[in-house]
Structure formats: C-alpha cells, structure tokens
Amino acid sequence: MRFDEGAGLDTSEVEDLRGGGGGIGGRVALGGGGLGVVGLVIYFLISQFGGVSLGPSAGGIGSLGGVGSGQQVDNTSLQQECKTGADANRKHDCAIVGIINSIQDYWGQEFQRSGSTYRKAVTKFFNGGVNTGCGSATSDVGPFYCPGDSNVYIDLGFFNELRTKFGAEGGPFAEAYVLAHEYGHHVQNLTGVSKKGTGSGPTSGSVRLELQADCYAGVWANHATTTPIETGRPLLTEVSQQDINSALDTASRIGDDYIQSKLGGGRVDESKFSHGTSAQRKKWFTTGFQTGQPARCDTFATNNLG
C-alpha cells in the first residue's frame, strides 16, 4: 500500500485523546436499537462473560508522534508531521490519517453519486478507556463505532494485539481493513440500517450488520486507488494482492467461531455469535472487493450469509 507523495492529508479527521483524562465509569451500551456500540471485535470476554475487564490494551505500535500513555496531547504534532502522502509513506501515524482520509473521500463521493450527503466521522485514539456518546468503554471492547456521537474509537494497541493474541499477519492494510469496517458502521448509521443490528445467533441482525460492514470495507478497498481527491489524483496509488491477503487473514482471525475456539476455551456456541464466522467475514469482504458495489452488500436481504 502506497500513497501519492504529493497529496495532502487532512488531520482534522483524527483526534488524539490519549492522556486526556476521559474516565472509565460504567460500560458502553451494546445493542439498544442502534444506539449502542458496534465494532470490529467485541472481545469474547465482553460478549460471553458479561464484560470482565482485561485491563488496558498492550501498548506498542501506533504511538502518534512518540507520545506515550498518560501524557496530555493534542493534534499539533499530527498537523506538523502529517502533511502529505510522502509523510504517510514514511510514518505509521500519518499512514493511519491517510487511510481515514481515503475511506471518507470514497464514501463522500459515493453518497454524492446517489444524491445523498455524507457526514464525516472523526476517529478518536485513546489509551485504556474513553467516554463516548454511547457511554464509557475500555480498550477490551476493541475498535468500535458509536452511533450516539458518530465517532470511531480505537486504542491503537489493538493492532499489536491482532498479531500477538489473534495471530494475524498484521500490516498497514490489515489496519486499513479495521478502520474501513468501522466506517462501514458509520455508513449504516447514516442510512438507518444500524437499528437492524440486534440479537445474537448465526442469522441475527447483529451478525448481518457486521458482515455488511466487512463488505463495505471491501467496497472501499476496490475503489481505494481510483477515488480522486482535490488534486484530481487518488490518495492511494497502490494496493497489492498481498495487502488484500493481509485483510483476509485478519478477517479469518476475528470470526466468532475462531475467537470462541482459539481464545474462549475451545467450545463454539453459535447462539452467542454476534459478528459472523471467519469464513463469512472473508466472504463478505471479498464480495465488496470484487464487485465494488455497496448494493451487493445487503446482508439483510439474503438467507445465504455464507
């Protein structure tokens, strides 16, 4: 994955909350008719054991501008360091900004083509815990989107946990898949689909919502190198087959069946499925990537989820 060296980056789409003192009282609202939090992975301890806390995510990858946990920060360093695609090609934090820009550029143009208006969502980075429009959350929830305030939240240590806990290959495009999935939830919120994401089980609304977000991530990946920005050229200039493979590898590590069997004691209980199986997550990302058509992502209109 590479960015256009001369393209500009928009750091206003990212907010760094780490060290900002946002406490951890209570729990995020899961479900609730579309008013709760929906994410890439609601950790198996959250979904199966009632929210037992593991403590803050492991640190490591993704500290923006060298800022560590517990320090008061703002976006000044991002604005100074992440100005162009060349910065995104050299610095991990700037690549995250570029990925978010690319995802929102695509959806903005897609909404415009359909006669609608896309409202941008800010991605907020945090350490340990954060207060949101859906309540307070710890890093154990994993990356999530909050319909209550229309923001994406992520502890960047999650990218490290994808490799160390889930055994994923990782890499920049695995991270792009994570973020594109969360913005898929933003699209669902804007279109009113989020309210359908209720219940649990292999054919539940929750599973269908998550698989659709995977499909939307694939749609963006299809268009990532052809979506123009203000310069008239795409922000992303290259997405390789290896990039797609890393996204599919990540999808295979975060299916309900994989998490339950590998991380939850070995027993698979379909009645508690909330995100879909590994095979389903790969299938729907692939559907989006191969077709490039959001309309092909209607997981609520099919009896064959894969």
TrEMBL record:
Can the keyword Transmembrane be found in this entry's annotation?
yes
Q: What is this protein called?
A: YpfJ protein, zinc metalloprotease superfamily
Q: Which GO terms describe its biological process?
A: proteolysis
- Source domain of life is Bacteria
Keyword tags: Hydrolase, Membrane, Metalloprotease, Protease, Transmembrane, Transmembrane helix
A cellular component annotation (GO) from this entry: membrane
**What InterPro entries is this protein classified in?**
Uncharacterised_pept_Zn_put
Where would you find the membrane-spanning parts of this chain? 24-46
Citing just one GO molecular function, the answer is: metallopeptidase activity
Compartments annotated for it: namely:
Membrane
Give the bilayer topology. Answer: Single-pass membrane protein
